[in-house]
Amino acid sequence: MSKLNLPPVPSSEITPRDVWQGRRRWLKTAALGSLAVGAGGVSSAWAAGADAATLNVTANQKFALDEPVTDRKLVTTYNNFYEFGTDKGDPARNAGRLQTRPWTVTIEGEVLKPRTFDIDDLLKLAPLEERVYRMRCVEGWSMVIPWNGYSLSTLLSQVQPTGNARFVEFVTAVQPDNMPGVRSRIIDWPYREGLRIDEAMHPLTMLVMGIYGEVLPNQNGAPVRLAVPWKYGFKSAKSIVTIRLLEKQPVSSWERIQPQEYGFYANVNPTVSHPRWSQATERRIGAGFLAPRRDTLMFNGYADQVASLYEGMDLRRYY
Ligand code: MTE
What pTM, to 2 d.p., does this model score? Predict the structure, then answer.
């Protein structure tokens, strides 16, 4: 992954919480006024093909953050999604053609009940929560994003992992006609990621179907992706089609390309530098170009919840 310079972004681009929540309430009310909200949690505005359909979400206060949420515009226009190009603006420009319906997610491998889920069933599997997570990209920038979804463990428990399931692999979509980026060979498509089973079952690990109370925009990994907030952003696979439970550790896409630079674990760790740059500080997108870089926190600030997963492990070796 290259490290690109950031465009200047005024601090006015950070949206105070009450403003984006107010906007969402307004959208909800607007949708309710003219269109009934479907039982699946997605308003019929979505079915009618509207740009951003509202979701029924409830804020989970356990995952609230006392930090300003990044403006939606920035979260949806400054992206990494190499299937649509390597420039940060490419996903927003090119992801419009991604076909997100019909869409299924197949769960297979070391499970007692392998099963294929339709995306509309995933939207109904559990109440959709809003959780505000700090997200840190390996390139040195960060955002604060209100995700909508539920813990991945809710889905995995449906298929009953066997005692041999030690790892989980996530395989994402390849739509050659709709993804201009897959013509380039930078990645051996499909994009793949993986987690250890205890990481995958950790309550923080989230299966995401929306942001800001609205259906996930294509450029953010529609219709379903991961959010793993204590790991660098590349672990949060977008547009997932297969989830495979494995006995052996899978090789993720970035690990295959540059194993010295991108490890399997990829935990946010300010004390372990990337071979080409320090990871000690980060630039919060939207904080203003002149704002000082902020110190990166161990496990991206989630040490209380996840440090115990790595007890006794040498995190310099397992980077
Ligand atoms: N998933 C797929 N399928 N393809 C990708 O290129 N990029 C990763 C991750 N998931 C990527 C992906 C990287 S490098 C980051 S930083 C995050 O998605 C970015 O997510 P965002 O654009 O929603 O912030």
Answer: 0.88
